Amino acid sequence: MTTSLFFIQLINGLQYGLLLFLIASGLTLVFGVMGILNLAHGSMYMVGAYLAWYFFTHTDSFLLSAIISAVIALSIGILVERTLIRQLYHRNHLDQVLLTIGMIFVFNALQSLLWGNDPQGIKVPDLLSGSIPLTDTLSYPVYRIFVAVICILLAAALYYTINKTRLGMLIRAGESNREMVECLGINISRLYTIVFAIGVMLAAIAGVLSAPMVSIVPGMGEHVLIACFVVVVIGGMGSIKGAFVAALLVGIVDTFAAVLLPSIASMVVYILMALILLVKPKGLFSN
Amino acid sequence: MLFQKRSERLFIWIFFPLMLMMPLFLDGNIFYINKLSSILIFALFVMSLDYLVGRCGLITLGHAMFYGLGGYIFYIIAPQNEAVNFWVYTFYICVISAAIALIVGFLVLRTSGIYMIMITLAIAQMFFYYFSDSMEFGGIDGVFLYLKPETSFLGIKMFDLDNPTHFYYLCLFSLFNTLVFFKVIMASKFGRVVDATRENPERTTALGYNVFVFRLASYVIASALGAYAGYLFSMQYGFVNPSMLSWQTSGTALVMLILGGMGSIYGAILGTFAYEGLHYFFEHLTEHWMLFMGSAIILMVILLKKGIAGYIEKLLEKRS
Amino acid sequence: MSQVMIETEGLCKHWGGLKALDDISLTFADKELHSIVGPNGAGKSTLLNLLCGTYKPTSGRILHKNEPIDSIKPYAFARRGIGRSFQKTNIYPSATCLENCAIAAQRYMGGSFNFLKPRNKEPVLLHIAEEALHKVGLGHRKDTVAAAVSYGEQRQLEIAMVLATSPCVLLLDEPMAGMGHEESALIIELLKQLKKEYCIVLVEHDMDAVFELSDLITVMVNGQHLVTGTVDAVREDPRVKEAYLGQGDEVY
Amino acid sequence: NETIKIGVMLPFSGAYAALGSDGRNGLRLALKEHRERLHGSNIEFIEMDTEARPERAPEISSALLNRHKADFIVGPVHSGVANGMLRTLRNRDTIMIVPNAGSAEVTGALCAPNVFRTSFSSWQTSYPMGQVAADKGYKRVVTITWNYGMGRESVDAFEESFTAAGGEIIRKMLVPFPRTDFQSYISEIASLQPDAVFVFFAGSGAVQFALDYDALGLRERIPLIGSGFLTEGTLGAQGKAAEGLVTTLHYADELDNPNNVKFRELYKSEYNRDADLYAVQGYDAGLMIVEAIDQLQGKVKDRQAVIEVMRNMTVPSPRGDFTFSKAHNPIQNVYLREVKDGVNRVIDVAMPALEDPARGCNM
Amino acid sequence: MSTLLDVKSLHTLYGSSHILHGVSFSIQPGQAVSLMGRNGMGKTTTLKSILGLVTPRSGTVTFQGEEITQKETWRRMQLDIAYVPEGRGMFHNLTVKEHLQIAARANRKGEKHWDYERVLKTFPRLQERLNNLGTQLSGGEQQMLAIGRALVTNPELLILDEATEGLAPLIRKEIWEVIRTIKDSGISTLIVDKNIQVLKDLCDQHIVLVKGKVVFDGSSERLINELETVESYLAV
Ligand SMILES: Nc1ncnc2c1ncn2[C@@H]1O[C@H](COP(=O)(O)OP(=O)(O)OP(=O)(O)O)[C@@H](O)[C@H]1O
Ligand SMILES: Nc1ncnc2c1ncn2[C@@H]1O[C@H](COP(=O)(O)OP(=O)(O)OP(=O)(O)O)[C@@H](O)[C@H]1O
Ligand SMILES: [Mg+2]
Ligand SMILES: [Mg+2]
């Protein structure tokens, strides 16, 4: 591998990693920090992409469709938490698995009912449609750089909120002992509703931002779901920093494995995870 | 008594006699008999998962790995064009998968909770991709087994596996044995420690038990039985496919288990039947069966606190 | 003085920069009750956790009957007869009180890898378990689920479980915390009996109990060994008064 | 009047759902259009969702065969499912018509008298491209596909004709199925600087590959050619990223023949969406059934007769008439197409009446 | 001034076991009240019923003249009630500092007698452990933190369950001093503890529970007069 190709692949890996973090960010919040096992996370990613596509074809404005999609996702999040998730806080964690698998079924059915099963795509917003030449054959699209920047900003914002603000502390405290948080006079239910909804919205926003880069197809959510869990767990539950590092690690390892070790490429991420967990049984950045 | 709860006895007295007579009602309709056989096989698989999850508190998302391995091991070790003995190969498959489980368990049981879920998933995915990216095992299209084993034991031929009804009884027989087997284990002194390791592993260590060894033993037992289920499945249609090892298979089994009620062992049967029943029903009702299936699952989680088995127990409690 | 059961040599435990235990050398003799007291955070629980293998020492050695045991596995401590109770209640909440003790008793009765023997068909084992319950005054609760008994009773159960393992060394971390007078008195009586047979290490803030029971008292402050002596010696030691007891004019 | 049962085994949910429903629509359309040729038989459809899950295939096909006693079973889309179906349906008392799955085995090693295919073999759709590429003067080509049966078969077929015509494959890339993150592979391709890139991808993989290839700026610099699935049913999602891609396939939406024009019109008015390849293949399966019923005057219980009729049939397909090879695979034209303004334009017939070599079939 | 907390004939059940049989008592503003009883008599259950952590089958709880029986727990706590639970209720993923930060607030009157600094001054041990996680503290340190966490909410009514459990004698003395100070500053306290010697001096009023019933409810004077009876209830 030449040096220039090495750097290009490194950039590819970083970019893939950042995208992974974007998709996993909502899960880090809902699963890592709040401790809710939401398997329907991938479905919300899919819903976000479809919403973006749907409103884009109707409004022709990427920004507008992004905003509408985010608002809809937020409302779905609030609704789901209020009516369903809330019933399960006092129960076994596995009930959340069952519930959210039920939700995957429902989201898949609704997607097929509302939007059909054809692959869809939307074009990159004009403002960001340029590209920057890297070598004489290869160039890099501006939109992807834009998304990478958003991911970094998002990571910083999440990190700050969870670790440094009172809100973040309350969310963490809720994961540890809901009853006690309530005993401090805090409306933990409402707090959890909001944070859960934000998690869902982040998943959808990831879908929106990915929409111009990926094919929007049924089942796209299930493909990313496992990758998201891998990222959150390798990083260490509840650690934003961990998730960020893990996403980049997975992105880079996966990218290089694809070209250097094609025979075991699909296994490499799992080998990585197994090794990390055997050495650090609670992930990279756990207490 | 082995079956302590009233609900349990009731279930066993209704379920097994009913299933014994089922082929009579079905009047040799091959489809229904085959369908029931595959449900029984899967119930056996879910039961072995229940032992791990519900009894040992070891949640895994990689149990399907053994389900698939059951099939692939058979494909690998059995000669291509010679019918082998069923019981001998049952033994081989259980031993080989137990050996694999011993190594895998040795690694995965170092972690716990969500980390264990993920590491079991990781190892299962490795096996999944090993088979699905391989050329010699037919890749994602899987492989075929052209000959079914024969089942003579001490010179007596008990089941003719090409006959769906015989195969059905073999499955039922296996399921019943597995149920009794798990019940005996759980009521035993070993079971007492298993219960302890689930509830409070830290305390159990402080009392002087090597928690790891007990978990490992349980993991090996459950995995061998999971592989046995996969072996039966691959034999039913003579067909092994990597999707048997996929995390979706593990997930589905987990869903059935939670639906049926964890930790009760017989709940596994209830859950499998309920899930498959709903699936079959909605699928024939509408093309958008997923919508109904999903809603039914959601409703059931919300309404049933401890799965179907828990619900039945509550009903009986109220009446007495 | 009777035989030395457990001995520590220069035991240290550091948490990051914090020296929770700093160079502790103590001996605990058989058939003696040796109390460890000290202000909160002095490192008493840490010491017990080291003695029973829950934590590994940063440096230093632990000897049990003159054999070093600091590198054996946590569960092996209990097998050598080193039993402990926890400061924070640590039981099997969904099992009955009797079953809680039966689990403990089975460890030393053996047969835990017996897959076939029904667990409730072993009278000797159940008898031991029941006896342990009676000793701590929980006989009437034997069929109650442990989660449903009150906090104080759970503390009693905690001790019953240690007794059921038939230990030779008892490490008790604040066994009386949360217990009422009556139950405390019961435990004090019980410990008086037990110390005739066992080596007991007691961590407790209830000074009435400590003074009444102890053969020896060790005072620790900030991870360091302050003084070891008899009840009277420690009671009157000005350093102990300053660091821990106060001036003696107050009720505890 | 007899009831004729047609079992339909297609994916109606999951990633292949669109393909499944188009195939089903085509099938239904054929039977509806030619109602009067059915000799008054009642047609009953039994539709089963395969979810594209191979492990369900034996069970569902067993249901159609044993429980419903279907006379014809149409399906599936997915090759893995096809393998599972063949296991239960080969040489049984029913007629299996495969409306998509292109795996070589279906009319190769696993061929059987009662199994027909109305679609294609993967060999057929890629073999002609080797010749085309050589004619265009490409010398050094990189191939890339998913590491699964169809992918490998397609690339091998391309290689077969391309190397025969003097070309060189400088790198064969196999992407683990169903990965759709192609950026690193495309970067690698850029550094190899080949004359062209041959791909086999379908569905979301095809969309994603075209999008990434375009986004990284290679579309204008290194020609992208492939089996027609690269641009089939995916153009809407690919947008301008598909412009100029050259592919070979046994059909194109724009094919200018009366059957096609009529079919597309009918389809549009019936289902309110444009027909595509999968609809055509389903439609042709329907035509086969209609023709068989018509010729046998509704007496389809005699499977031997049905097989006899089908084997000698000329199907008046929208893709142009085709007949069956000994292995029951279509002998058909393969067209050379190029995407212009979001449509697959037919440039030429790449190879006329191409027959699959049916390796491994001893029928 | 009117009654601060008024509890009227609470009946509470766990499943089918009836634990509280009509518990009634009241607390006047500024009073310190002790709640005593042997193990398992229902002290904790009474406190939890007041706070809404368990739902009583019948009976009412009135705080500052407002009935709160149907309110969610967090609304009750916002009326400036603070709670130190038995077992301490630490957050395993928050540091000592964060424990205090999330709890700190002014009360409804806008007063802020207790803040972060004052707690650390009162419990210097915590100062040294600021970056430890809640569960990485010694038992006594946890108890200090739990009390500190309750104080920084600047309550009108402070409820302590097993107030001095696991504390060293000196610290225990310290806690009693603190409680005396807050009592002097007009804050009411409801204390569960077993140390009758201290409580009889510290508290104004005393309640004794036996098997879910109030068997004694009176002032310190009465307590001293009837010390023997009460001690028999407590089995001292
Ligand atoms: N896991 C840990 N990580 C970091 N520090 C710890 C950890 N566990 C305990 N400590 C610290 O070590 C010191 C000693 O704690 P230990 O529990 O031994 O005290 P103790 O003497 O038992 O006190 P108490 O009487 O309050 O129970 C304390 O200051 C505590 O904060
Ligand atoms: N979750 C529960 N389920 C069933 N019963 C319970 C539960 N919690 C407590 N109890 C029972 O309620 C009774 C009162 O318990 P409570 O904890 O209120 O006692 P307490 O007076 O606080 O005792 P202690 O001084 O030991 O803390 C006890 O007999 C206990 O067994
Ligand atoms: Mg301690
Ligand atoms: Mg209490």
TrEMBL record, chain A:
The record's PANTHER family line, in alphabetical order, gives: ABC TRANSPORTER ATP-BINDING PROTEIN, BRANCHED-CHAIN AMINO ACID TRANSPORT SYSTEM PERMEASE PROTEIN LIVH
> Chief location of this protein?
membrane
Native organism is: Nitrincola tapanii
Q: Which cellular component appears as one GO term in the record?
A: plasma membrane
Protein name in UniProt: Branched-chain amino acid ABC transporter permease
Q: Which UniProt keywords apply?
A: Amino-acid transport, Cell membrane, Membrane, Transmembrane, Transmembrane helix, Transport
As for subcellular location, the record says: Cell inner membrane
Extract the Pfam families matched here: BPD_transp_2
Q: Name one GO biological process term.
A: amino acid transport
From TrEMBL, chain B:
What membrane topology was assigned to this protein in its record? Multi-pass membrane protein
Under Gene Ontology molecular function, one entry of this record is: branched-chain amino acid transmembrane transporter activity
Instruction: Show the stretches that span the lipid bilayer.
Output: 10-26, 32-53, 58-77, 89-109, 114-131, 167-186, 207-233, 253-278, 290-312
* UniProt entry tagged with the keyword Transmembrane helix: yes
List the Pfam families hit by this protein, alphabetically. BPD_transp_2
Which organism does this sequence originate in?
A: Nitrincola tapanii
Cellular-component GO terms for this entry: plasma membrane
Identification of the protein by name? Branched-chain amino acid ABC transporter permease
Q: Where in the cell is it found?
A: Cell inner membrane
Could you name the domain of life of the organism this protein comes from? Bacteria
Q: Which UniProt keywords apply?
A: Cell membrane, Membrane, Transmembrane, Transmembrane helix
Starting at the broadest rank, the lineage of the source organism is: Bacteria, Pseudomonadati, Pseudomonadota, Gammaproteobacteria, Oceanospirillales
Automatic annotation (TrEMBL), chain C:
Q: Which UniProt keywords apply?
A: ATP-binding, Nucleotide-binding, Transport
Query: Does Transport appear among the keywords?
Result: yes
Q: Which GO terms describe its cellular component?
A: plasma membrane
Q: Does the keyword ATP-binding apply?
A: yes
Cite the GO molecular-function annotations of the record.
ATP binding; ATP hydrolysis activity
InterPro entries per UniProt = AAA+_ATPase, ABC_AA/LPS_Transport, ABC_transporter-like_ATP-bd, BCA_ABC_TP_C, P-loop_NTPase
Specify the domain of life of the species encoding this protein: Bacteria
This protein is called ABC transporter ATP-binding protein
Q: Which organism is it from?
A: Nitrincola tapanii
Q: What is the lineage of its organism?
A: Bacteria, Pseudomonadati, Pseudomonadota, Gammaproteobacteria, Oceanospirillales
From TrEMBL, chain E:
Which GO molecular function terms does the record list? ATP binding; ATP hydrolysis activity; branched-chain amino acid transmembrane transporter activity
Please give the PANTHER family that the UniProt record associates with this protein.
ABC TRANSPORTER ATP-BINDING PROTEIN, HIGH-AFFINITY BRANCHED-CHAIN AMINO ACID TRANSPORT ATP-BINDING PROTEIN LIVF
Coiled-coil residue spans: none
> Species name for this entry?
Nitrincola tapanii
What is one process in the GO biological process aspect for this record?
L-amino acid transport
Q: Matching InterPro entries, A to Z? A: AAA+_ATPase, ABC_transporter-like_ATP-bd, ABC_transporter-like_CS, BCAA_Transport_ATP-bd_LivF, P-loop_NTPase
Alphabetic keyword roster: Amino-acid transport, ATP-binding, Nucleotide-binding, Transport
Transmembrane segments annotated in the record for this chain: none
Give the protein family.
Belongs to the ABC transporter superfamily.
Protein name from the UniProt record:
ABC transporter ATP-binding protein
Looking at the record, the residues that make up the ABC transporter domain are: 5-236
